[in-house]
Known about the structure:
Strand content of chain B: 15-25%
Helix content of chain A: 55-70%
Order of helices and strands of chain A: HHH
Number of domains of chain A: 2
Oligomer: heterodimer
Number of strands of chain A: 0
Number of helices of chain A: 3
Number of domains of chain B: 1
Order of helices and strands of chain B: EHEEHEHH
Largest sheet of chain A: none
Helix content of chain B: 10-25%
Amino acid sequence: MGLIKTGIKAAVAVKVGHMVHDRIQTRKQAEWEAQGNPQGTTPPNLFTSTQTAPAAADDRLTRLAQLGELRATGVLTDAEFDQQKALILAG
Amino acid sequence: MDRDVLAPVAYLAVEFPAGRVTGEGFALVHDLVAPGVIAVLDLEFIAKEADGSVHKVRLDDIDHGADVDITQWQGAYSGLLDQDDVDTVAAAMRSGGLTGIIVYENVWAAPMLAAMDANGARLVGSGSIDVDDLIQSLNDTSPA
Lengths: 91, 144
């Protein structure tokens, strides 16, 4: 009887990501606002990967920790520390 | 996510027989979105009343256990399911039941499909396999 019953086509369209994702997001946003949520706010993200954002935050924390060690060991002056810290926090 | 490629889309329908959402199963979905395993395209709920009538239920109106944070599902609804879908799902439901239907994209497959597309390969099939068929095939193809 076989396992493969659906989905065999001459070619399955895969490069429709932009169109589908945009239309889904538009619908979700409309529903979000219809629920009485303020315009300009967005619903909780259940849609796109957020993997890169936490990684970037972790990276900044690491650099701040390293910077703190450099000041504690006297490699950086307080002024240099403050300058570099501001740069890291500014991303 | 490679926004140019639409990865295979599938659905799961889960019935809560007591008419209220319980357990942490849905909460685990969150853990699959963040690393790019899936994307939730739609989440809808269907109720089947004692008299057999069926209707969609808004997220705000769902009865749920204290361990379920319903607010995290706000904004997941996109209204893809039509009356035929509701009727199809309802046919499998028990009276008094509440069924959550999640339509999701298998985002994990997108980079793979993009890479194959770039190399001139093309996708010609995609689908899910029925468990009964799988067991039947195991039986039919088992070596003598």
